[in-house]
Every structure is written in structure tokens, then in C-alpha cells.
Amino acid sequence: MAKMWAGRTDGLTDAVADGFNSSISFDSRMYRQDITGSMAHAAMLAKTGIITDEEARQLTEGLQGILDDIDSGALDFDMKAEDIHMFVEEVLTARIGDVGKKLHTARSRNDQVALDLRLCLKDFITELRAEVKKLISALAGKAAENTETIMPGYTHMQRAQPVSFAQHLLAYTAMFLRDCERLGDCLKRTDVSPIGCCALAGTGYTTDSFFEAAKLGMSSVCFNSMDGVSDRDFVVELISDISLIMMHMSRLSEELVLWSSWEFRFVELSDSYTTGSSIMPQKKNPDMAELIRGKTGRVYGDLMGTLTMLKGLPLAYNKDMQEDKEAVFAACDTVKACRDVMIPMIETMKVGADSKRRAAGEGFINATDLADYLTGKGLPFRTAYKISGSVVAACIAAGQTLETLPLETYRGFSELIDEGVYEAVNLDLCMSRRSSYGGTSVLATREQIETVKKELEKI
Asked: HSE (CB half, 13 Å, CA atoms) of 72?
């Protein structure tokens, strides 16, 4: 069958070429945006006198009928159609006759697909921000329950200093808040209408792009028609933002994998988000966290693929750009699936407070506090640091901790040490003393939780 664009050629492409060229298998998900955009275009054509009000009414009613039939399942996509735009136009023309052929006046598939994609991603960004907010709330809620739960903080995966579990979780809320901010910025650059740019040079018809954009609830209009049809920065920006969200979820997943192991036992994940082994009956595998960690690489691939596809394209539109949709849709689907698992996994996990406390009692994570104690006695910090290191070495040799080492042994390293050393190295006090802004004390973490709540209200 000849294509609607037949003219310069006979439109009779090879069947293999048809399949290679077709995009309806993935751009059909934009059917709602395509039809909504066409309704706005019909209204604009009537407003500017390019078509009559009656023709606009027929077009709008015909489009609404197609939308309703797709939604209800009464109309299936024709996978032989070239793309969603041609499918809708062909069905519309079949239903209302030659009036349907007027819909594409003052419009190209180049600006039409750009509009559809922007509308589609605009909806997704709004939804994703709302879901990331839920993840932040879940983390903040779990943090509020654990402001006094002490655990070792790590650097280089070595036990470093005592922190609260609340502060550890709140670090992730900071990451995801930045993600929400980035998505908000991306939304601004996505919410720009390219309709009216046509193929690349604009149109000779007297049109009203601003009216059409307003009908679609878009905030602005592309000011350069060549850029309007060739710009995919908003796609790259969204996949980049999603990549960062995935990276943050992957880091959290890595910790959940470690924490739920018998070596740590810091948390226990719900049975709903773990699996068993086919041969080892004792196993409880954190498969959901592992899958989130693994799927992050796929999103990175979507980003690199899109950047690579765009890097050598001359202006304006090129068919290469059809490849943007599969990549961005894949990234959107992946982050959605991961987010849908991560939120309840956090909400339902049990915290092993006793295991955290035992781990905090080992590894000499209060050694810095011993050095600070000696500094308070008048010693230079580097001298105090060296003495503290020697005390730790003596504790290791004697099988002691800083909290159990006898005072006479302490005094062998410095006569400045007195009974006050035990208060200085008390783990709970070590944590509570760190009350600086953003610190790990109960007061500081409660302030952080309030900050998170206020930031969420702004989103």
C-alpha cells in the first residue's frame, strides 16, 4: 500500500524497509499526547481561519472518538502503520472523510513528534517527581524512628566514627531532594512547544503557536524553528536526571545488600522483597536491591546511546532522532519499576539496632574523640592523635576497647588523662556531641528531618 507521503516517490517501500522504518511499536504509547496535540492544532487552524469552525468540530469529534476507542480497547494499533501520527491520521480520514486530510495543514511530522514527546515526558517528569517525594518521605520516616540508633559510620568501608542510623538515611534524602530539583529544572525546558516550526523553516500560513501552546498547557514556544524540530536536549537531560536517581538508588541498594548480610545484620528486608535459594534453604537473598543496582547500568546505556546518536547530526531533523524514544522510554520504565520496589522495601525493612550497637562498640570509632579529649587538655592535635593511635594499638594487643581500658594503662601514655576519659569515649556521648549543623546528634538529625519536610512542601 502506498504511503500518505507518496508523490516524489511511489511510496512503495520494501517490506523489510517498512519494518525497519516503522516506529509505531514504541511511539504508540504517545497516542494520547498525539491526539491531544491534534485537537489543539485543529482549534488553532479554526481560530486563524485556515479551516472553518465546522471542520474543526468534525476533526475534534473524530479525534475524541479515536481516543475513546483506543482507551476502551475498541481500536487496536495497526502495527503496519509507519508511526502513531500516520495511524491516527489514517483512522481519522477513514472515519470523517476528506476533512481529516486538512488536519496536517501548517504542521510537519517533525514538529508533531517533538510536541508529542515533550508532552509525554512532561507528564512523566511530573509523575516521577511525585514518586521521588514518596521515597524521600519513606526515608525520612524511617530516620525519625532511628535518631538514637547508633551505628558505625564508614570511610573507605572501614569503621570510622559513631553516627546515627537517622543521619545515614538522611544523607540519601539529600540526594533525592537534589534529584527532585533537577527534575523541576528539566520540566521547565521540556515544557516548550515546538508546534508551528513545521519541517524546519516555519510556515507561510498565518498561525498562532502561542494559542496552540496555551491550549496544551505549555509555558512557552520555541523561538527558532530549526532548533524546535532538532532539539533533543530535554531528552538527554531527563535521561541524565534519571541516571542520577538510579545511581542514588543503586548506592542505597548496595548498602541494603551489605546491611542485610549475616556479617552486618543492620537491617532485615521484608520477605516480600527478598527471595530464597534453589539449593540452600537458609538463604534470604536481597534480589530486589541487587536488581536495582544492576538495572542502573541499563539506564547509563540509554544515556550514552542518546548522546552518541545526537553528537554528529547536522541541522535540522534527521531520522536518527527516531532512536531517542526507545532510549528515553526504556529509562523511564526502568526508573519507575525500581522506584515502585524501593519505596515499600524501605518502609517495611526492620532495623537491627542491637547489631548496629555491637558493631559501633568495635573498631575504635571513638578514637577521634580520645584525641579531642587530649587536645582539650592542652596537647597539640597531632600529638594527641599519635597518643590516641598508640592507645588503640595497646587495646588491640590486650583485647580491650577504649571504654574498657584501665585508667592506669591510659596514664602510661599521658599523665593528663583522668577519669574524664571514659565520658569522652562513651559512644552515645560521642554521637550526641556532634551537634553541629548537619551533624549526627539527635537534635541535629531532628532538625534535618524538619528541613526535609519543608523542602518537600516546596516541590
From this structure: 8
**Separation of CA 102 from chain center:** 41
Q: How many beta carbons lie within 10 A of that of residue 205, not counting itself? A: 14
Q: Which of 36, 98, 112 is nearest to 70 (CA)?
A: 36
Q: How many CA atoms lie within 13 A of 49 on its CB side?
A: 1
Distance from the Cα of residue 59 to its chain's centroid: 38
Q: Name which of 127, 204, 59, 107 is nearest 51 in CA terms.
A: 59
Q: Which of 156, 260, 270, 272 is catalytic?
A: 156
Determine if the peptide bond prior to 130 is cis (ω within 30°): no
Q: Has 248 been annotated as catalytic?
A: no
Using left for φ > 0, alpha for ψ between -120 and 50, and beta otherwise, residue 123 falls in alpha
For 187-232, write each residue's pLDDT tens digit: 999 999 999 999 999 999 999 999 999 999 999 999 999 999 999 9
Active site residue 41: no
- Extract the C-alpha cell encoding 309: 546518536
Say what the pLDDT of residue 15 is. Answer: 75
Give 73: exposed, middle or buried? Use CB within 10 Å, 0-12, 13-18, 19+: exposed
Q: What is the rounded (10 degree) CA torsion for 47, 50, 55, 61? A: -60
Dig out the grid coordinates for 409 from the structure: 594503662
- % of the chain surpassing 90 pLDDT: 93
Q: How many whole angstroms separate alpha carbon 129 and alpha carbon 458?
A: 12
- For the record, the C-alpha cell of 117 comes out as 514527546
Given the C-alpha cell 550497637, which residue does it identify? 357
The catalytic position among 220, 272, 277, 390 is: 277
